[in-house]
Amino acid sequence: MIPVSAVSYDAMSWPWLNVIGVKHAVRQFKKQRDGGVIYRPELGTYGFDTAGMDTSVAPGDNFYTYANGTWAKSTPIPADKSNYGMFTVLDDLSRQRTRELIENAAKDPNSKIGNAYASFLDTAAIESKGLAPFEPWLGKIRAVKTKAELDEIYAEADRLGISGPFGMFVGQDDKAPESYALTMFQSGLGMPDRDYYLSNDAKLVETRAKYLQHLTNVLNIAGEANAAARAKAILDLETKIARVHWTKTDSRDANKTYNKMNVADLQKRAPGFNFAGLFSGIGVKTDSVIVAQPSAITGEAAIVAKAPIGVLKDQLLVQSLDGYSAYLPSAFDKEAFAFFGNTLNGTPEQEARWKRGVDFTTAALGDDVSQLYVAKYFPPETKAAADQLVKNVIAAMDRRIDRRRRR
Question: What is this structure's pTM?
Answer without folding.
Answer: 0.85
